[in-house]
Specification:
The protein is mainly α. A three-stranded antiparallel beta sheet has the order 1-2-3, with no helix packed on it. β1 and β2 form a beta hairpin. α6 packs antiparallel against α7.
């Protein structure tokens, strides 16, 4: 009887957690819908708004709040939506902003890693981007990664934590190509162009990025490259397969422990019906690769966030906070804040 009571109590706790999670989801869905509608109105109110000024305010919030936030679940989609305005020029500016943060050594490794993730996520998932912008972004990323890798030789002490921006960018490069490989392959010069990236110079560098980034990304990337005859890296992967990974994201290789890059894909699919409907036609869904599975990357990552929030009964959810900050900024500012970015490789390549 006592066991039955405990089981009944456990069932009630699960139901309570699910109800709290659903309530939070509905709240966030409404909040995101209203915020995006507000952004749309401010951008297209010809009598009262200056679109460029509003965009600069939004980018200020992105740099101060979103890039420094740990795994926000939903609020980042405001900028995904924003990117489709002005024929994609806003998306290009978002990419430039992220790339400038990636190359800024005064920023923390966390911010630089986050910046790389947003570049990869936006370019991979935003179906409104031109293939030209996708190509120029990938070129800039590959050139940055290659220049970084060329500074090291076989005597280099390879520890992931010492090269986080590099590994984060490599993961984004692989991720972008997972989603965009077929797009390029449909064009006459697409496959030669991808071969011309010379990815092997990065993959086979002493820093060995295939060993430290997401295994699911590496698996699909390798199969995509092989299927189109661009690059064969199965042997490189097999050499890394001797490393076993535990739940703490620590791998062992011949008894030597090493840390893996924490994966963050900011534009994974979400379970907000209204927001999903709003993004319909803008959002690039994953098309399975023969012999590869990227499902674990595209699985909505909600359970951990929602369970934690429900258990704490806290209203201070990171997405609530960020959305509130966004609304406050838009309400208080009628002009744009000035953001001066250092000249960098991305700017020069995207401006060509």
């Amino acid at each position: 009887q006592q066991q039955q009571q405990q089981q009944h109590q456990g069932s009630n706790e699960i139901i309570g957690t699910e109800e709290a999670s659903n309530k939070l989801l509905n709240k966030l869905d409404v909040l995101m819908k209203l915020t995006i509608e507000f952004v749309h109105t401010r951008l297209y109110d010809e009598n009262k708004s200056d679109p460029e000024a509003i965009f600069q305010v939004l980018m200020g919030v992105f740099e101060r709040q979103v890039l420094v936030a740990f795994r926000p679940s939903f609020v980042q989609y405001i900028w995904f939506y924003l990117g489709h305005y002005d024929d994609g020029s806003y998306a290009e500016q978002i990419v430039k902003t992220c790339f400038s943060r990636l190359g800024d050594q005064s920023c923390s490794d966390f911010v630089r890693q986050s910046a790389a993730a947003y570049v990869g996520g936006l370019v991979a998932r935003a179906d409104y981007l031109t293939l030209d912008l996708v190509a120029r972004t990938i070129i800039a990323c590959v050139d940055w990664a290659r220049s970084y890798a060329e500074e090291f030789d076989e005597s280099t002490r390879v520890e992931m934590r010492l090269h986080i921006p590099f590994y984060a960018l490599c993961q984004s490069i692989f991720y972008m190509l997972c989603f965009r490989c077929d797009d390029f392959a449909q064009h006459d010069h697409g496959i030669p162009w991808m071969r011309g990236l010379r990815l092997e110079t990065i993959i086979r560098s002493p820093l060995n990025p295939l060993k430290y980034v997401s295994e699911s990304v590496v698996d699909v990337f390798a199969k995509s490259m092989s299927r189109h005859g661009i690059l064969q890296c199965e042997a490189d992967i097999l050499r890394n397969k001797g490393a076993s990974v535990n739940s703490a994201n620590i791998a062992t290789d011949g008894g030597v422990k090493f840390e893996l890059l924490e994966d963050f894909f900011p534009f994974d699919p979400i379970q907000l019906p209204s927001l999903t409907e709003t993004l319909d036609g803008m959002y690039k869904k994953w098309q399975p690769v023969e012999g590869g599975d990227i499902e674990d990357m595209t699985e909505p990552r909600l359970s951990r966030t929602l369970t934690r929030s429900a258990e704490q009964h806290s209203s201070e959810n990171i997405d609530d906070f960020l959305a509130h900050s966004l609304s406050t900024s838009l309400s208080m500012h009628h002009g744009a804040e000035s953001f001066q970015h250092n000249s960098n490789l991305m700017s020069s390549l995207l401006d060509e």
